[in-house]
Amino acid sequence: MVTTLDKVDVVTVGVGWTGGIVAAECTKAGLKVRGLERGAKRGTENYGMIHDEFRYGIRYELMQNLSKETITFRNTRKMNALPMRMMGSFLLGENLGGSGTHWNGQNWRFLPYDFQIKTMTDEKYGANKLGPDYLLQDWGITYDELEPYFNKFEYTAGISGEDNNPFWGKRSQPYPTPPMKKTPILKRFEKAATNLGYHPFMMPSANLSESYTNPDGKTIAACQYCGFCERFGCEYGAKTSPEVTVVPTALDSGNYDIRFHSNVVEVMKQGNKVTGVRFFDTVTGEEFIQPAEIVVLTSYVLNNAKLLMVSNIGTMYDPDTGRGTLGRNYCYQILPSATGFFEEQFNTFMGAGALGMTIDDFNGDSFDHSDLDFIHGASLSLTQTGQRPIQFNPVPPDTPAWGAEFKKASIYYYTRSLNIGGQGASMPHKENFMSLDPTYKDAYGVPLLQLTYNFTDQDKALHKYLSDKSSEIMKEMGAKTVVAANPLTDYDIVPYQTTHNTGGTVMGSDPAISVVNNWLQHWDAENLFVVGAGNFAHNSGYNPTGTVGALAYRCAEGIINYSKTGGSLV
Amino acid sequence: MANEKKGVSRRDFMKTTGIATGTLIGGGIIGGLVGYNVNRDKGTNKTTGNQQGNNSAGQTADHPTNVGLKFFTTMTAFNVLSQATERIFPEDDIGPGAIGLGVPYFIDNQLAGAYGMNAKEYMQGPFADGATTQGYQSRLTRGEIFSQGVEKLDEEAKNRFQKGFAELEPEQMDEILTAFQKGEVEMMAVTSDFFFKLLRQATIEGAYADPIYSGNKNMDGWRMKGFPGHQYGYIGQIESEEFQKIEPQSISSMTHS
C-alpha cells in the first residue's frame, strides 16, 4: 500500500549542502519545503568521539552502507561491469549533511576559463586541440554571472582566505574571514614556490580562522587544528557544514521539515511536469508518495543521475551515436603529486583539512599550452591536513611493503615526509559516462548506476606535467629524496583517490548537450531542478564544493522565480 | 629448536606455546604467554608499568579477562595469525611488534564483527571474476577469507618445510608470506594476494588503531610513530618550529575521566 502525503511547495531529495541551501533560501522566501533524507539526523553533538581514525577514517562510519546500494564499474564498454563491493576510490557520504559533513573544507571558485572552456580553448589553440573524442563544452553561464552566488556561499560558510592569487576570477568582496595560520611547513612551500617565480597564496578554507556569524545569524567556531577533517565531522562546529549553517537556517523559518530515513526511488512525471517523488521509509519499509509543486534533486552526483534514469526523465547518452545527454560528461579529478622525504622532523600530525598554500601558475589557462598535448592543469598545494598513522605510512622507493624495513621506514618518515598535490582538471570523453546497470540492483530492487570510466591521454599528459612541476617545488623545499607520482595507467576503483565525481546531469545553454539550463532547471520538466557537481560540464583544477555551493544558490533563486512565474526560466 | 640457539625471544616463546597448545587444555597459561605476560627486559611496559594493557579493571593475577578470542576457535590458527602479523610488523629496537601490540587479538575481534561479516559491503550476486581495477569480487566475507588464509598458511608451511607455520624460522615464514603476496598460493574463491593485502592492512590497523579496539597496546604503536592520538587541538603548537613530542591519549579519555 502506498500512502500519499500532503502536497508541499518544494521537496528536495537529500539534505546536504545543495538541499540545505535550497531549503534555506526557499523557506526564507515563504515556500514550504520538505527535505527527504535517506540517512539519519546528526549534528555537532554526535562528533564527540570523532578523534578515532579507525572508526571514521578506516571503517568509514560516516559513509554509505554499500550493502544497500552501490554502483557497478568497468573501465571500458568491452568489459563486464561489476559492483563496487567495497568502498575505495571515492567515499559516498550518508546522513544529514552528506559529503558536506566529511569534507576537508578546501573551498574554491572555478576559473573564468572553466565556464567558457570550449570557446576560449578554440580561440586560442584552434578547434581541434584535443580532438573530437573529447566533449568539451561551455557551461551556459559565465564566471561573472556566477560571481554573486560564489560570494553568497562564501559568506554563508565564512570562508577564510586572502585575495592575492593573480590567476583567479575577480572578487566582488574580500573573504569573510582572514586566512588560517601559516605554519612552518607552509612557509617552506611558500619560500620554495616564490624562489621558482610562482605565486603562492593561502588556500581558501572552510575550517575557519576565527569565529564568524554569517548573514543568516549562524555562528561557525574557530578551528582548533586538531587534524581530523576529511572523513570526520567537526566536534567544534568549526568546519562549515550544512548542519551548522543552512539546515538550522531553514528550520528557523518555520517553513521547513526534514523527513529522515526516506529513500527516494522515483521522480514521478506526467506530461512535461513532475508531480512528486515516491520513497520508502527505511525503518518501517512503508512506501509513500510525496506530491510537490517543485521537485529538486539534491543528492550526490551519482544518485541524482540514477534517479533521473530510473524515472525515465530525459534522454540517455548513447556513446555510439553521441546523442542523448543523461549520463554524459562524467569526469573525475586527476591527482598529480610529488612526495619529499626529509631528514628533519615536522609536526605532520597537526593540521586542518584546508590548511595549505597553493599556486595556480599551472591551473586553467594560466600558462601556454601551445606546445603541450593537454589543456587545463591543476592547482598545486601543500596541505597540512593532519596525518594519521593507519593511513599514512610513507616509505622511500624500493622499501618493502611489509617487514622490518617497512616498519622502520614508515615510522621514521611519518613525521619526515611532505606531499605536494594537485587537484587536476578532468576533461569529458565520449567513452566516460554513466548509465543503468542491467544486472545488479539495490536494496529496493532499483537498478544500480553503472559507471564506465578510464583515464584518457589528456589526463595522463596533464598528470605527468603537473607531477614534474610538483617535484621541482619539492626539491626546492630541500627534500633529500623526491618521488613524483607514478604515471597514470588504467583507472582503478580500489585505492582511495578523491570524492570529486562530476557530470552526468550537465548544465548548458543547448538541450542537445545538457540536461538542465543555467538555472539548473530540467529541459524536459520545468518544475524539476537538478543541482550539484553533476552539473559540471567538466571538472576543474580545484575541489568542487565552492562551485557546487554557488550553483545551489543560483538554483534556489531559479526555484523562487519559477514559483512565481512558471515556465522555462530561459 | 630455535631457542637453543640464541636465548629466548618472544617469537620463540610463541613457537613453544604454539606447540604446547596441542597438549594443554584451557587457555589461561597460553593466553598469558601469547604476547601478554612475557616479561621483557625492554620494550612495551615501561611507560605505564602495567603489563596487562591499558585496562587494569578487566584482569586477574594471571591474565586480562577482557582479552580473548571471539573468532578463531583454535590456538593453532591464532598462533599462525600471530606469527604472520609479527613478520609483517616485527618487534625491533624501536619498540614492540604486532604481537606485543595485541594486533592478533585486534584482528580476531574485528573478524567477529561487522568487518568480518562484510556488513557494509555489497554482497549480492552474480559473482564474477573481474579486472583488478574492479576490486573485491569474492563471494567470501573477510571472516571466511581469513579462516581459509590462515589454514592455507599452515598448509603451505607443512608442504614446504614439514612444520606448522608458527614453528618456522622467520626467513621461512617470509618466504611463504611472499608467495601469498605474489598470488602464488592457490586459494578457493579468492586469491592469495588479496588475502595478504587484507592481512597486511589489518596488521597496520591493529598497530595504530585506538587501544579501545584491543590493538596498539599501551598506545605504544602511537608512541613509536610520534602520533599523539586524541588531543583536543594543536592551535597553541601548530606554528612552532620545533617538533612536538606529545604523550598520546586514547579516545577512551572521553568516557573515563
Task: Explain briefly what this protein structure is.
The complex is a heterodimer of chains A (570) and B (257). Chain A is of the alpha/beta class.
Task: Give the helix/strand class of chain B.
Answer: mainly alpha
Total of domains of chain A: 1
The CATH architecture of chain A can be named as: 3-Layer(bba) Sandwich
Distance between the termini of chain A: 40 Å
Contiguous low-pLDDT stretches of chain B (5 residues minimum) are: 1-57
Largest interface: A-B, 66 and 62 residues
Show the helix and strand layout.
The complex is a heterodimer of chains A (570) and B (257).
Chain A: E1 2-4, E2 8-13, H1 17-28, E3 33-36, H2 53-58, E4 71-74, E5 82-83, H3 99-102, H4 112-115, H5 117-125, H6 143-157, H7 184-195, E6 201-202, E7 212-213, E8 219-220, H8 246-252, E9 256-259, E10 262-270, E11 273-281, E12 287-297, H9 301-310, E13 328-331, E14 337-341, E15 351-359, E16 378-385, H10 404-414, E17 417-424, E18 433-441, E19 447-452, H11 457-476, E20 481-484, E21 502-504, E22 528-530, H12 545-565
Parallel strand pairs in A: 1-12, 2-3, 2-12, 3-9, 4-19, 12-22
Antiparallel strand pairs in A: 4-5, 6-15, 7-8, 10-11, 11-12, 13-21, 14-17, 14-20, 15-16, 16-17, 18-19
Chain B: H1 10-20, H2 28-33, H3 75-88, H4 103-111, H5 142-161, H6 170-181, H7 192-208, H8 220-225
Helix pairs in contact in B: 1-3, 3-5, 4-7, 5-6, 5-7, 6-7
